[in-house]
Design a protein that fits this description.
The chain is an alpha/beta fold and 253 residues long. The protein has a single domain, classed as Alpha-Beta Barrel (TIM Barrel). It has an eight-stranded parallel beta barrel with strand order 1-2-3-4-5-6-7-8, surrounded by five helices. The structure holds phosphoenolpyruvate.
Length: 253
């Protein structure tokens, strides 16, 4: 059975003081052996601090983005190599805000995924359709294209896929759990078709307006093994309540 992974995407939030207070509170709540894997993805400014505070704890450190080149003239960027050097273990690749606000292409996302593996990081690959694409009946077509592009060179390491319908991110309007389940099942079938047994080890998260109040509806779905949480992850108590919704006896898919 796959251990659920619940990840916090802080986006562009929190000063160092706020980050430190949050992490100490979360450590208090989580204890020594949390029932699910927890990942915190702070802003770059708080990564070094978080690496220090979380060292030796069961909470993993993640980054919200990473550049595939090891080093060089890429002003404003931080490389996967630098992230790994800091103790980062997960990196979000292809978040819809990166794709839509910063013009990241499927091909660039693929470079990031491959670079993450090259430096020993686990990519959290985000896929998902816009509202227009869903209404046009193209949701799977879009997700399949994003998967095919990002994994064109194969599955070369541990992977988490976050199914995040774009229209559900930050809007307070989550997907219908049945739609999330249907998409997760298709993603799983695609992974197994293309990568055989290795495709069964990939954890699939749902992301998009997950809150403590609705987390249970998503985290108990048979083909979902975790969540990627934005807004509700900014409060440690709310994030922990979401994580707890992923624990307990889960059906094996
Ligand atoms: C996200 O940023 O990946 C996300 C799911 O945000 P929110 O939970 O705020 O919808």
């Amino acid at each position: 059975m796959l251990k659920p992974v619940v990840a916090a995407n802080w986006k562009m939030h929190k000063t160092l003081k706020e980050a430190e207070d949050y992490l100490h509170r979360l450590l208090e709540l989580v204890g020594a052996e949390p029932p699910v894997e927890l990942v915190i993805c702070p802003s770059f400014t708080a990564l070094a601090l978080a690496a220090r505070v979380l060292a030796g704890s069961p909470i993993a450190l993640g980054a919200q983005n990473g550049h595939p080149q090891k080093e060089g003239a890429f002003t404003g960027e931080v490389s996967m190599h630098q992230l790994a050097d800091l103790g980062v273990r997960y990196v979000i690749c292809g978040h819809s805000e990166r794709r839509h606000l910063f013009g990241e292409t499927d091909a660039f996302v693929a470079e990031k995924v491959n670079a993450a593996w090259a430096y020993g990081l686990t990519p959290i690959l985000c896929v998902g359709e816009t509202l227009e694409e869903r209404r046009a009946g193209q949701a799977w077509e879009v997700v399949e294209r994003q998967l095919r592009a990002a994994l064109a060179d194969g599955l070369s390491g541990p992977l988490v896929i976050a199914y995040e319908p774009v229209w559900a991110i930050g809007t307070g309007v989550p997907a219908q759990p049945q739609d999330a389940q249907d998409m997760a099942r298709r993603i799983r079938a695609w992974l197994v078709e293309h990568f055989g047994a290795a495709g069964k080890d990939v954890r699939i998260q749902y992301g998009g307006s997950v809150k403590p109040e609705n987390a249970h509806a998503f985290l108990r779905l048979p083909d979902i093994q975790g969540a990627l949480v934005g807004g509700a992850s900014l409060d440690p108590d709310a994030f922990w309540r979401i994580a707890l919704a992923a624990s307990g006896d889960r059906p094996s898919w």
